[in-house]
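agent: user wants the structure for Serine/threonine protein kinase from Aliiroseovarius halocynthiae. delegating to structure tool.
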Amino acid sequence: MAWSPDKTEVKSWNEWDTLRHVIVGRADDCHIPPEEPALDAKVPEDSDMRGQWGRRPQETIDRANELLDNFADQLRKRSVRVDRPVSIDHSQPVATPDFHTDSQFGCMPPRDVLLTVGHEMLEATMSYRCRWFEYLNYRPLLKQYWEEDPNFRHEAAPKPRLTDADYNPDYLSEKIGDAQRLEWAAEKFFVTTEEEPLFDAADVLRFGKDLVVQHGFTTNLKGIEWLRRHFPDHRVHTVNFPGDPYPIHIDATFTPLRPGLILNNPQRRLPEEQRGMFEKNGWEIVDAAQPAHNTPPPLCYSSTWLSMNVLVLDPKTVCVEKSEVYQAEQMDELGMEVVEVELRDAYAFGGGLHCCTADVYRDGDCEDYFPKQ
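agent: tool returned. relaying tokens verbatim.
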């Protein structure tokens, strides 16, 4: 049965089939959160965000919202249904019997929180204390989908306690240095421990019957095992990228464009021993083009490699940030139509074009792209 804009249906099995319905985030009331173990490990040691916290300046919020609104309009003009979250008050503290932090984060990157697998949308555990309640920004939409789609499964992973036992104290030093961080990454020693299952949705890529999950700062091995048990009909594969001193979220490192083709960050290549599944099945892994910028925007957590944080609209069409000219050129060489989207001034609010969206519906069914395992 073909998709209809007049009928809500949740369904998305991969990252590239034709996109019909999507959530685009908002920059409303976004905060730089106070210091906490997971956050401190993520913020680059030379970042202008070190030691700062509080509501972001209103003019930057307005500019980011302008860009996100324009992006939503671009998608609508391409006949994509677009929904938006309802921002909660992110100035409120997060308090549980186990921890307290003085403010929250925001609702620009729904990809971090929501994982759509088939007819299910799963709320991730999250591994930052400031993001414990972030799912509430999306609950009105998920409630609507549940009421309108009788086949929709709304699931939530067990909320973690996020006590100090969840974090390795070695990462609490402000001056670790990239050399030490890279050594730890190669040893798979991350800020998150194995105290309890932890995962962010943005560490998961969907390839039909296969889920590829990054082990790093925001997803631990217990989180990956939880996903394996939760999706028993899927094959769940653990990957890591030892060239990344801040291994958080997979979508600026490993980006599938269509069946058989993946972009890989040349500074964070997939290790040889983890390439077998792709090589056996004829997938090509190509180095992504270099970013157009040498530094991230002001007060931005993310690396310059948001250049490859693209949104695939269908196997022949991809949204690329307007200033990322080298990435756009590469997409053209790979036979993709490029849709330019201005978003750089919103990067600081949670990421790029993939981060600021969450799939609701894509065409296609659950296929096996890796029959040779």
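agent: one observation worth passing along. The longest helix spans residues 58-77.
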